[in-house]
Amino acid sequence: MSTSHWGSPTASKHALLIHGLTMSSQSWEGIAQPLVAEGFFVVAPNLLGLGWRRGTGYRISTLAEDLRPYFAIDMSYDVIIGHSLGNIVTLSLSPFLPKTKETTVILLDPPLESTEETFKNAKISFLKEIADRRTTDGYMAENPAWSRCDSMLRALGVYMCDRTAVERIVCHDDRRANGGRRV
Question: What does 90-140 look like in DSSP terms, one character per residue?
Fold first, then answer.
């Protein structure tokens, strides 16, 4: 599997970070370093279709099932953080969490309840971003508060995406599996 790691695997605390659409595991650098400073071993896998990973199924359940090896025997997490698409995948991981240990789950920018219009606009935006890949300088100009590193990691994440995977993820309708809500 394609994964970024920070810190020592022997650390007493573990964190799992799950990135959003058009991102990669490297996008967590700015979060991972402070967690390592607090004594965590940080693991950030690349989701299928993103971060150079290729697959054939891009349903949320498939993305979550693909992460099952991260919950092997004797592996648990003190904290799991998801961003955007990573939030939905994070919530789908709940069956894999150990029942004997508490896990803090943090959802950043969750797209859990979107209107049809919001979803349509996001879909257009993601597909446009993949089609019109920007440079680091382009992201810096568009987002003046971002650091050069943030801008570079964003450009890299978009570059590493499989357009077909992004299309399938954003075009898939999971309403029936989510109580009528589009995710």
Answer: HHHTGGGS-TTS--EEEEES---S--HHHHHHHHHHHHHHHHTPPPHHHHH
Which residues, in sequence order, are CB contacts of 8 under 8 Å at separation 6+?
41
145 exposed, middle or buried (CB, 10 Å; 0-12, 13-18, 19+)?
exposed
CA 56 – CA 69 distance, rounded (Å): 18
Residue-wise pLDDT for 16-65, tens only, equals 999 988 898 999 999 999 999 999 999 999 988 887 778 777 888 888 88
Both tokens of 180, joined, read: 């009528």
In the chain, pLDDT over 70 holds for what percent of residues? Answer: 91
Confirm if 6 and 34 have CB atoms less than 8 A apart: no
Question: What is the H or E stretch that residue 34 is in?
Answer: helix 29-37
Phi/psi at 24 (5° precision): -145, 175
What secondary structure letter does DSSP report for 162?
A: -
Helix (H, G, I), strand (E, B) or coil at 152: helix
51: nearest Cα among 85, 7, 80: 85
Full-model pTM: 0.84
Q: DSSP letter at 172?
A: -
